[in-house]
Design goal:
globular; single chain; 8-stranded parallel β-sheet; alpha/beta; 8 helices; two-stranded antiparallel ribbon
Length: about 250
Amino acid sequence: MAIDLNADLGEGFGIWTLGDDDALLDIVTSANVACGFHGGDAVTMQRVCNAAARRGVAIGAQVGYRDLAGFGRRRIDIAEDELAADVLYQLGALSAFAGAAGSRVAYVKPHGALYNTAADDPEQARAVAEAVARFGELPLLGLPDSALSAAATVAGLPFVAEAFADRAYSPTGRLVPRSEAGAVHGDTAAIVAQALSLARGDGVTAIDGSVVPVSPASLCLHGDTPGAAALARAVRAALVDAGFDLSAFTA
């Protein structure tokens, strides 16, 4: 049994730090690195790519809306061609730093509002997928049975199903909006239990008590959650104890 464990990293900007990138890089198998639009900057991208390469952690481009002030968590109505150009721009930037570190960008994952919008908006999903296809045949990481998964198929890209150990789900299989109470789990035991259920292919219990069938190849923990490193250690230990081999899905 193999499972990938990913986290969002490199989301600080300038003198502002967010999360413990070094601690999480010792735990995860894939790093979703911010590309400067919702978070991150040139120095941060370089530092995280260097650190990930030293540890053999897969580097993924976490592309988002051009929204530093809102941390990329505000939906932006943007023309399809503009969004595609923004995604391609971010991919190029991170690719330079990953290559200089002796590694490469191995996959792409939208961030925040773009992630949720591309799950249901065919135009924005198509913009993301077409930009990635222009860059190279990289896997797209996202919610299964979504507009993004369909766009990836049309663009000839591999699609990798992802699920979240630390987020609440609606009965439709979408993430509960962060504006709603209980959208982000904070209890370690609950996060570990959800991670194990997802990894085993048993699905996730939605907020109404129903079980949503999800069988992901990668589990995500948010790097900006308080105590993220400790939560990630607990999840990793539980997965290993349950017999899972933690390895990047791009390996």
